[in-house]
């Protein structure tokens, strides 16, 4: 995992080494001050050489100026490194998540994904910057300070250094507990985000049912769990800080007493004593740094683990290695012995055989839950079939590039999803970069022209989140306009008009009829009136395709379709 973590540094090798070098110089220069003080006390003060003292101070001033510059570089560039890595990881994760299949999204909460893309990566970025740099600097400073202390007074240095193994033990002890706490914090944070996403996304339902209190309770349960997880984490941080602080102050006290003893009894020079005390304080800095890294490390690593977990989730629908690109398909569709189920052994479709000619309009009818939508969603490979083959124009859809395949299929759903942008952006989603003329032409063909003309901002009107500011009919028209612009050879109309009033439905049906001209069209419908003119009607039940033919043929046949027809329109 560490190797994978460090692979993200690769593009920033130069930045990393620059930041690292500056940090090392900074750490080394930190050691100069105690040495200089010792030198002034031991050598310059007894000589009474005022000029040299001023010169030594001038050198120190220069060092401080350099340190200030280095500090800026280490703080700004070091964070830049962390942010760059965080940004790269976020980009890669987003790209990867977009490739994951419907099956993945069926089983994943959006809030959890948002958590991965935001909080987790922020923590990883922090560790990416502070982790290696601070640990190395801390080690360098510790070794440097210890080396000088050894040189000045070996016995005292060794006695002071005894604290290090204790601190290491403490660090390891707290690290284990903090990793657990960080994991819990992340899970709770992700659940928390998922809950907010769910409640805010469904706020209209929440308010319509006047269930705010109920939602408040659920939210608060999450909120309290999150609070508890944070408290555990802070408790550990507090303990870690306090115990380290106590240990360090005890060492300070020890150095003061032992140093005084060495001065009084063993003739240690006063300057060495002061240098020793100052070095002990410098000595604590890296220990504090290590502590800070240890605190953020579990969070970063827990976040990175989740990141890797998601990055390693293979998209179960992907381009095969030899997938081919096809400019434009005609739309000759063939299902051969197709078997599919969503979960476990249960099959929604079993041995489906179906041929649809290019340009044909077929309508799927049948009881709810029989698998009409499923049958159609296998065509753009939203789900991978388990058995059999589906081909278009003789190409097995698995051999086509997903992009080619999906560019050839347009879907208009009952529940139109619009992005929270303008009408222009939403129509242009059908063909990114389309000109205003092309967008307006599509809008005209979808009979959206007069509506757009009536808006003060025209195409620039913002539709609100999920198109909340538009009526159902307007959203449908917008989806149709998008499809005119996309101009796919194959169309899937999933109960596209069943939620509309009769008049709007009739108008939209007309637009849809125009849209389907010259395209292979698969209509999933409950309202039989809208599909009477289909070239073929296919009845899907839990037993698969049980009847097919033209409307009149099926009514005359007296089977399921004729019974459905009778239920909706009465006996013919
Ligand atoms: N994403 C999914 N994950 C798991 N099961 C699903 C999923 N989508 C549909 N199903 C199940 O598959 C079966 C077929 O559903 P499908 O939506 O294809 O039926 P349908 O004939 O289109 O129904 P309707 O006319 O009510 O829309 C149902 O039992 C449904 O519960």
From TrEMBL:
The record's InterPro entries line, in alphabetical order, gives: AAA+_ATPase, ABC1_TM_dom, ABC1_TM_sf, ABC_transporter-like_ATP-bd, ABC_transporter-like_CS, P-loop_NTPase, Type_1_exporter
Q: Which UniProt keywords apply?
A: ATP-binding, Membrane, Nucleotide-binding, Transmembrane, Transmembrane helix
Q: How does it sit in the membrane?
A: Multi-pass membrane protein
Q: List, alphabetically, the GO terms of the cellular component aspect.
A: plasma membrane
Q: Which segments cross the bilayer?
A: 20-41, 53-74, 135-152, 158-176, 243-264
Outline the extent of the ABC transporter domain: 333-567
Source species, domain of life: Bacteria
Q: Where in the cell is it found?
A: Cell membrane
Which residues belong to any copy of the ABC transmembrane type-1 domain? 17-299
Principal localization reads: membrane
The molecular function terms of the Gene Ontology recorded here are: ABC-type oligopeptide transporter activity; ATP binding; ATP hydrolysis activity
The entry's family comment says: Belongs to the ABC transporter superfamily.
Q: PANTHER family recorded for this chain?
A: ATP-BINDING CASSETTE SUB-FAMILY B MEMBER 10, MITOCHONDRIAL (PTHR43394:SF1), ATP-DEPENDENT PERMEASE MDL1, MITOCHONDRIAL (PTHR43394)
Name of the molecule in the record: ABC transporter ATP-binding protein
Organism this protein belongs to: Paenibacillus nanensis
């Amino acid at each position: 995992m560490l190797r994978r973590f460090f692979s993200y540094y690769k593009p920033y090798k130069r930045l990393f080494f620059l930041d690292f070098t500056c940090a090392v110089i900074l750490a080394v220069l930190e050691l100069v001050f105690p040495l200089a003080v010792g030198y002034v006390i031991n050598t310059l003060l007894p000589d009474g050489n005022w000029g040299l003292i001023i010169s030594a101070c001038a050198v120190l001033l220069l060092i401080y100026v350099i340190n200030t510059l280095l500090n800026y570089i280490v703080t700004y560039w070091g964070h830049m490194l962390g942010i760059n890595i965080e940004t790269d990881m976020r980009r890669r994760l987003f790209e990867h998540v977009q490739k994951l299949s419907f099956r993945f999204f069926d089983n994943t909460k959006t809030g959890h994904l948002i958590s991965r893309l935001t909080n987790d990566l922020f923590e990883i970025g922090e560790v990416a910057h502070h982790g290696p740099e601070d640990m190395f600097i801390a080690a360098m400073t510790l070794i440097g300070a210890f080396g000088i202390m050894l040189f000045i007074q070996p016995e005292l240095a060794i006695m002071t250094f005894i604290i290090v193994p204790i601190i290491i033990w403490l660090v390891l002890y707290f690290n284990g507990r903090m990793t657990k706490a960080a994991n819990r914090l992340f899970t709770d944070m992700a659940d928390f985000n998922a809950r907010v996403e769910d409640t805010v996304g469904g706020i209209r339902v929440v308010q319509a049912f006047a269930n705010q209190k109920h939602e408040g309770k659920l939210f608060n349960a999450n909120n309290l769990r999150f609070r508890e997880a944070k408290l555990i984490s802070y408790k550990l941080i507090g303990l870690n800080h306090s115990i380290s602080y106590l240990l360090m102050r005890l060492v300070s006290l020890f150095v003061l007493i032992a140093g005084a003893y060495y001065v009084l009894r063993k003739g240690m020079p006063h300057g060495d004593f002061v240098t020793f005390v100052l070095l002990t304080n410098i000595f604590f800095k890296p220990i504090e740094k290590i502590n800070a890294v240890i605190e953020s490390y579990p969070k970063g690593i827990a976040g990175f683990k989740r990141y890797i977990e998601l990055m390693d989730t293979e998209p179960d629908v992907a381009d095969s290695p030899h997938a081919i690109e096809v400019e434009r398909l005609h739309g000759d569709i063939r299902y051969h012995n197709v078997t599919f189920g969503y979960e476990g052994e249960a099959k929604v479709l079993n041995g489906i055989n179906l041929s649809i000619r290019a340009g044909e309009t077929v309508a799927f009818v049948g009881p709810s839950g029989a698998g009409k939508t499923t049958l159609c969603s296998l065509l753009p490979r939203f789900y991978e079939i388990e058995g059999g083959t589906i081909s278009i124009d003789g190409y097995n859809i698995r051999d086509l590039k997903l992009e080619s395949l999906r560019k050839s299929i347009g879907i208009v759903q009952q529940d139109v999803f619009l992005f929270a942008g303008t009408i222009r952006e939403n129509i242009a989603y059908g063909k990114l970069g389309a000109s205003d003329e092309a967008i307006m032409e599509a809008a005209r063909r979808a009979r959206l022209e007069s509506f757009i003309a009536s808006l003060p901002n025209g195409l620039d009107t913002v539709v609100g989140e999920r198109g909340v500011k538009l009526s159902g009919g307007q959203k449908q028209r917008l989806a149709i306009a998008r499809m005119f612009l996309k101009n796919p050879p194959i169309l899937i109309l999933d109960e596209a008009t069943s939620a509309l009033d009769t008049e709007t439905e009739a108008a939209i049906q007309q637009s849809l009829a125009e849209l389907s001209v010259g395209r292979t069209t698969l209509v999933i419908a409950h309202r039989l009136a809208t599909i009477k003119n289909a070239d073929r009607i296919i009845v899907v039940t839990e037993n698969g395709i049980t009847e097919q033919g033209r409307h009149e043929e099926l009514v005359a046949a007296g089977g399921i379709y004729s019974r459905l027809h009778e239920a909706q329109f009465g006996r013919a």
